[in-house]
Design brief:
about 10% strand; single chain; 5 strands; 2 domains; 5-stranded parallel β-sheet
Amino acid sequence: MTGEPLRVVVADDQASVREGLVAMLGLLPDIDVVGAAADGEQALQVVARTHPQAILLDLHMPVLDGAETTRRLAERHPDVAVVVLTTYDDDESVLAALRAGARSYLTKDARRADIAQALRGAVSGLAVLDPGVQATLLAAAGPHRRVPARGDLPDGLTQREGEILALIARGLANPEIAAELFLSSHTVKSHISRIFAKTGSADRAAAIEYARQHELG
């Protein structure tokens, strides 16, 4: 990040909430709210016109809901980080938004500092999840995913790198890994580069063979 303010768009169908968020974020010296939208279609138009770095997006909006808006943003403006802010935290809504490409998910009772942190983190490729939402996601993931323990991992692999390597061994592509772990594609690529370096793998096939040799995945 440079010293310039973070360019942000706010999208929410409730005028009072939308205007409140614009005013609240506008008080922060390192955030510049460059546009606002009342529905998903407007959000796409505002993003195309203003070229923000991030959008704070309500999940349940008319015309296009948050998940579909997120999907279209990911297709048309992949460099724009999507942070979902909503009153809802049900499994289906959470998973739909994150799998569509949202990087972070907060509920509307989040503090201004938490929202600002999520916006900055999302632009940097980090995922920020409301604690209650995170618990929902872990419950939805179920017990099927094997997360290797740190002590089990060879060659200095971190727990996250071990988990991604296990998913590579299962045949998942980068976008599928990103959706499975609720990470940005950029973050997944960075992890995979470090995995290849640590394991001495020249390509994905070599990484898969390495994972099988070490019983990962």
